[in-house]
Amino acid sequence: MTYYIQRMLEIRNEYFPNQQVVEQVSKGRKFIDENCCEPLDLLTISRYSFLSKFHFTRLFKRCYGRTPHQYLTDKRMELAKQLLLSNYNVMDVCYLIGFDSPNSFSTLFKKYTGTSPRDFKKKQFSIGLKNGFPPNLFFKIT
Fold first, then answer.
1. Is the pTM of this model over 0.85?
2. Contact of 122 with 109, CB cutoff 8 Å
3. How far is Cα 97 from Cα 136, in angstroms, rounded to an integer?
4. Which end of the chain is more exposed for a tag (fewer CB within 10 A), N or C?
């Protein structure tokens, strides 16, 4: 992980010699991290960074290799997997991570993981039972 972070910093410094621009884009990423379960749109995120939405998207992708929307979706899918391993049902997870529609959540989850949320939960639970314990029985959201 240290190599990855170091390499990202090197690449970022090549593209962004201006530290202020890097800080503005980083503020947007931090805003996404802290509010990933809320309804977010590009305009809100870019305003938080004091950049136009087009400029913010271009800089974000150059800096992190993904668009802000892709990054937000990745964050939500990772959180969804964690929540599904806990005692939350699929419908609860859908709304907890900021989706309005269970169908769109299930479709996107399947696209990211190759399996439906319900099947993911069943599979992980059966793996835990085979190992002699239910998976993440005491899961805590941080």
1. no
2. no
3. 19
4. C
